[in-house]
Amino acid sequence: MLISKAYAQMSDASSEIVDLANAPSPMDAFIMNMGLVIVLVGLFYLLLIMPQQRRFKEHSNMLSDLKKGDRVITGGGLVGKIDKVIDDKEVLIDLGNSVKVTALRSMIQSKTELKPKAVSKDEKDSKKDEPKAKKTSKKSPKKSSEKDSKKAIKKDSEKA
Length: 160
Hints:
Elements: H1 5-10, H2 15-21, H3 26-64, E1 71-74, E2 79-85, E3 90-96, E4 99-104, E5 108-111, H4 121-129, H5 141-159
Antiparallel strand pairs: 1-2, 1-5, 2-3, 3-4
């Protein structure tokens, strides 16, 4: 700054001049600001970038380890079993009921240990035998309140 520390202390001026004299130099302020930026970049890397890289590496390893018979979930939410590994980029997935789909390996989201729920013949037959319940229509309160308001308007117009 323009005022030296010695001159600011010797003068009987206000304390503002002393505060200005004790202010950090522009270089010190720059170093403190850059230190803060470096700390923030480090935290950003630790909290956001590293976990994402780890997840990507685990997913790549899972995709490279896929083999016939693995149960997988695709990016579209389809669950099936790998029927055939076609090449490095594609696999044939059996979705059940003789439905087979060719999918890109990159679109496989995860492996799963879930087994499809087996429905026995007895359960199928009992579901077929149950009569379907008829839908009952109930008047909604909104419609009845609309009718009431229309009736009130008609009464008011007749009175007038």
